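Could you please consider the sequence and fold following this short note?
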Amino acid sequence: MLEIILLLKRYFIENKLFTLLNKKQLLTTILFFLVLTFSFAQNATIKGIILDENNQPLEKVSIKTEANGTESNANGFYIITIPANKDMTIEFTHLSHKKVVSTFNLKNGEAFEFNPVMSTSVEQIATVIVNSNRRKEVEGIVTIKPDVIRKIPGANAGVENLLLTLPGVSNNNELSTQYSVRGGNYDENLVYVNGIEVYRPFLVRSGQQEGLSFVNTDLVQNVDFSAGGFQAKYGDKLSSVLDITYKNPYQFEVNADLSLLGGSLSVENISKDSKFSGIVGLRYRDNSLLVNAKETETNFRPTFADAQGYFTYRFSNKFHLSFLGSASINKYNFEPQTRQTNFGTLSDPVALLVFYDGQEKDRYQTLFGAFKGSYFVNDDLTLHLIASTYHTTEEEYFDILARYRLGEVNSNIGDENLGEVEFSQGIGSQLNHGRNDLDALITNIEHKGDFKVNDNRFEWSVKYTNEDIRDRVIEWEVIDSAGFSVRPPRTFPNNQPYESFSGPLEPFQNVRATNNTQINRLQAYGQWSKRSTLGTSDVWYNAGVRAHSWSVSGDGISSSNQTVFSPRAQFAIKPYWKKEMLFRIAGGLYYQPPFYRELRDANGVIQPDVKAQKSFHLVLGNDYSFKMWNRPFKLTSEVYYKNLSDVNPYTLENVRIRYRANNSAKAYAYGLDMRLNGEFVPGTESWFSFGYLKTEENINNRGYISRPTDQRLKFAALFQDYVPNMPNLKMYLNLVFNTGLPGGSPSYADPYEFQNRLPSYKRADLGLQYVLIDSKKQFNTGWKKPFKALSFGFEIFNIFDIQNSITNTWVRDVSSKRQIAIPDFLTPRVFNVRTTMKF
C-alpha cells in the first residue's frame, strides 16, 4: 500500500499540467479523479409492494411525504425518494383502506424495502427502526449493496472481488474467486443463496481454470457476510458465512453487461396477478484477455458459461413455492508454447527459458436444483421445507512436456544481444501426466422453522445429506536434469553423474487411486434470540447449538461414524450515550466435519477416520457511528482469537489444497480487523480496511510454524468518486495490499524446512464510467427512450503493472546441485472496455 501511495504522490507532483501527451500523463489524469469531490443533495430511496389483507397488490395507493409524492402501479409497486439522515414521515392512503403512517431515517444512498399491508378496518401507525441494518450489525454481519458489487472493477468482478476489500479476507490471486478468512483456507467458507447451501468444483487447481463463481451478481438483491463468531443457524465450517439473497421481481426488467471478458444478461418479470415471479440470468466469460497477457505464450481457448433462474409462485398468502436452478459448463483448453522469466538482480540477472509440447484439457460441468416451500402459519410462525440436488462431473486430462534452460542474461546496455541467455547454468525437462475424473451427487432435504413469542425468537432445523462421490486420480511427474532422471525426494542418495546408479527408474511424483465413497450426514440446530433493555441500554441475545452426525463408507473402506456438538452464543449492547456505540461479543465451539477433499490424503486414498477439525472462537467487536463533514461514517473494529485442535494439515499450491488426512496438528489464530466506511465523497460510499493476523500450527509436536494462510498485514480500499462539472463521469478504485504468504516451496517439501515467504501482493484496479441514462435522467423520445439505464466505460486492471507471484517453479542447477525458485507471475496491466444497460 505504501508503494501505491508513493506512486500516486509522485504522479501528482511530476504532472502539474494535466495533459494527454503520453501514457503516464493519461494515467495521472485518471487518478486525478481521486481528489475531486462535489456536494449533491443527500437522498435515500424507499420502494416496495403494497398489499391488502388478502396479500393482493393494491393499485393507486397515494404515497406522500413533506416534499413529494407518488402512487402504486397495477402490481402494487411504488418507489419514492426522501432526504437522508433525518426523520421523514410517509403516509400511505387509499379510498377503501385505512391509512398507514411510517417514519424512516435512512443513510445517504440507502435503498430500503418496505412492504406495508393496508387494512380495511383498523388504522395502522408504525415507526421503522431508525437504522435499518441494526439487526445485522448486532450479529456482526457486514451488508454490501448490490449496486456497488456490479460497478467495482476487478479481473474477476463480482461478490468475491468486493469481499477482498474487507478486513480479514485475503486472496493473492486475482484470477480466483476463492478467498481465505482470518487464517482459514478456501474450504472453510459457507455460501448460501436464499437459504440454500451451494458448492464449487472439486478439482480446480489454478485460478485461471475457475471461470465463473456460482453467485450471479445480476440476480443479487442482498449480500451479508460474517467473518467469524456466526450463529448456530449457519453450517459447520470454521471461518466465514456468505449469505446471498436473490431478487423477487416486481416489474419487467432486462439488464445487460458486455465487456472484452464476456457478458451477462438477466431478465425478470412478475405476472399481472403478482402470484408468479421469476428472474433468469445468462453469463459467458472468456479469460483470454488476462491469460494471454502473462509470460507463457499459449493457445488458450476457454469457455465459461452458465444459466441460473429463481422462480416463485404464491399459491396463497400462506404458501409460497420457490425454485433455484443453475447449469454451468467450464471448458479449459490450454496449449503452452514458450515462456521466458527474467529474475535475479541487476548485477546478476538470470532467465528461465521453457519450450513446451502437449496440452491440457479440463471440463467442469455442474447442475444444481432446489425447491423451497414456505408456509406462513401466522405472523409469528413460519415453516420451510427445502430439497436440493447438486451434480458435478469433472475431468482433468493433461500431458505437458517442458524443456528448460536456466542461464545468465546479457546485461550490457547497447549490446545487440541484450536480454538474451548467453550461458546455460542448467538444462532439463519435466513431463506431467494426468487423467483425473470425478463424479459427485449431493442431495439435501431440510426442514426449517421460525417462531416469535413477544420479544423472543426461536429458530430450528433438521437436515439430511447424502454425498455419493466417484473419483479416479492418476497423476505422475518425471523430472530430467542434465540428462539424468531425478528420483523421488527423501529416498536413498543418487549421486549421478559422479557415481553410477543401477536402481529402477521411478517417477518423481506418482499418485494413483480410485475411490467410490458415500457420506451420510444428519444435522440439526436450535437457537434463541431476544431483543431487550438493560437499564437504559438496548441489548440483544442469541444462543444456540448444532449437532452433526456423519458416516463414511464405500468400496474398500471400513465404515466410520462420528458425532459432534457445537454450542454458540452472541451478545450485543448499545449504551444510551451521546456517542453512538455498539459493543458485541461472540464465541463458541465450531466444528468442520470432513468433506470429501479432506478425507483424501496426498496419495489419493480415502481415510474414513479423519475427525472434524475443531476451533474455539472468541470475537470482540465495536461499531462507532459518527458524523464527519456533516456526513455519516462508521468505524468497525473486531479483535478475534481462535484455538484449533484436530487440525488436518495441508499444502497449498495456487488454489489446489492437498490434505494429509491425519488430524496431526494443532493451531491458533488471532488478529485485529478495522474498517472505516462512509461518504468520503457526498452521495457515494467508500471504505478503508486494515487487518492484522497471526496464525501458526504445530504438526506432530515439532513446534509452531506459520500456516500456509498466515497473511500478517492487509490494507484495502474501495473508493468511489465523480467529476464535479461532469457528475455523470464516475470513477471506481479498488486497492489491495497483502504481505507475502508462506509458500512457493515444492509441493513435496517438508514445511519445517521451507518457511520462505512469497513477495507482497500489491494491486490497483481502476474503472471509469460515463452514465448516459439513469433513474434521474430519462428520455421520452429518440433512440434513448427504450433504456432505463445506459453507461459506457473502460477499466484498467493492475494499473501500476506490478509483478505479483502466486507460486514458484523449481528447477535444478546440476553443477551446484541447487534448486532455484522461479516466480510464476500473475497478470500484468490489462485494459478492458465495458458497457451496461437496462431496459
